[in-house]
Amino acid sequence: MIFPTALVFVLAGVVIYLAMLYNGLIALQADIDKAWANIDVLLKQRYDEISKVVEVCKGYMQYEKSALQAIAQARSAYAKAVTVNQKADASGPLASSARQLFATAENYPQLKANDTFLQLQKRITELEEQIADRREFYNDAVNTFNIRMREMPDAFVARLMRLNPRQMFKLKETERVPARVMWDEVMR
Predict the structure, then answer these.
(1) Global pTM exceeds 0.85
(2) 154-174: per-residue pLDDT in tens?
(3) Which domains does the chain have, with CATH numbers?
(4) SS3 state of residue 161
(5) Cβ atoms within 10 Å, residue 77
(6) Alpha-carbon span 128 to 169, nearest angstrom
(7) Residue 24 CA to chain centroid, in angstroms?
């Protein structure tokens, strides 16, 4: 009589433990999705602000077609991105082209004195800082999730759930290169 009762308690304990593992993995997935949603909102805001900067710069930077075209191409690539990885990949060139535009703007004193340009530049800088902060939260959540998926016994539950590791939001090579002023464009 004691043996069947003990077996029921052991099985109930195993089921409860597996349910806790399952719920933990689901919570981590939700954390990752929430962290990405926060980044996505900021990336969209940056996308919108950059379009405003381009409009302000067009009147001043008549000879900087390559800088303005780089931003247009980067914005187009970002607008077409759908998945997390596509948006993360498209984010790098957009940030890089914006830095390039700001570096080039240094050669235009009238533009640097324009209040709208200065406000937009400040806003984009603030957004970049917020994106960096949110990227850290996202990467922490992904790291925790990926570790749990490889640890025992979570690995068994993750395999049953058909979960796959997530990719971290990493800097692209274009984001590592400092912006430089294209003097040949300025001299034309």
Answers:
(1) no
(2) 999 999 999 999 999 887 665
(3) 2-186 (1.20.1440.20)
(4) coil
(5) 17
(6) 14
(7) 24
